[in-house]
Amino acid sequence: MINEKDTLLREIQRLTLLLKTLISKVVDIEPNDIDVAVEETDTVLKSTFDLSLNAISIMPNDDFKSVIKDLNEEHVERLTELIFEVLKKAKQMDKTTGFNTIELIKKNILLINFLDENSDTFSMERMAMKNVLQQGL
Fold first, then answer.
1. What is the mean pLDDT of the chain?
2. pLDDT band, very low/low/confident/very high, at 96 (cuts 50, 70, 90)
3. What residues contact residue 11 under an 8 Å CB cut-off, 6+ apart?
4. What percent of the chain has pLDDT over 90?
5. If exposure means fewest CB atoms within 10 Å of the residue's CB, which of 23, 70, 86, 93 is most exposed?
6. Contact criterion met (CB below 8 Å) for 108 and 84
7. Nearest partner of 104 among 37, 59, 47, judged by Cα
């Protein structure tokens, strides 16, 4: 039982680190290279969570909620941050890359609302992201 718990904890930590690495890459990438960041993000999200930015943007809200409710809270938090950073970079280039920007903004707000409702931790960072998203980036 302890080994299973340790294995699960290591997997959660591995996925969290993977998402943090993606966030760093998106933040550090030049805005005109957003295509590369989106492609890499989609590849990792697809292989890890069976999601992509486009799939998230077109997924009905109820379906998306059922997907995220099964994820670890830390992963939902990092996914929220990752999508936010991709949207910011895309906005800097005034470019959409394989996803519906308006719908992805709505999904990102949905993620933030989900975290606000289900997390024991209040986050000023989430509030700030939500404000930016509601203003259309």
1. 91
2. low
3. none
4. 72
5. 70
6. yes
7. 59
Give dist(CA 131, CA 135) in Å, integer. Answer: 6
Q: Nearest-CA neighbor of 65 among 100, 129, 109, 121?
A: 109
**Cβ atoms of residues 109 and 129 within 8 Å:** no
**Structure-token pair, residue 13:** 């930590």
Q: Give the residue from 127, 106, 125, 101 showing the smallest Cα distance to 34.
A: 101
Helix (H, G, I), strand (E, B) or coil at 29: coil
Cβ count within 10 A of residue 103: 15
Give the Cα separation of 29 and 125 in Å (integer).
Answer: 21
CB 45 within 8 A of CB 105: no
